[in-house]
Amino acid sequence: xxxxxxxxxxxxxxxxxxxxxxxxxxxxxxxxxxxxxxxxxxxxxxxxxxxxxxxxxxxxxxxxxxxxxxxxxxxxxxxxxxxxxxxxxxxxxxxxxxxxxxxxxxxxxxxxxxxxxxxxxxx
Length: 123
Hints:
The protein is α+β, with helices and mostly antiparallel strands. Helices cover 47% and strands 12% of the residues. Helix 3 (44-55) packs across helix 5.
């Protein structure tokens, strides 16, 4: 496994940028950034790719491990991985002839924090 570290998405952590939408409205910049992430996940192939990467042994997957489960060509898989990478959902590293991908935990935390329901009041 590589010595990569997860980087905060767009220089922010989940608590700093994303109060749940039920507590306060999103600002324009945050809405644009988050919409790009959700748009990337709105494609079934990309959503499955993210799941495959996240659940892969060791937390990262070689592109060679990601082409088999799909009925699309390798260039199409590469395109979908590029969209996920550009949306800030996965990181990647070339090792020899292969590229390895891992999910960026800060990105998932950011999306999760945004959609978190309000804490139940004890009134």
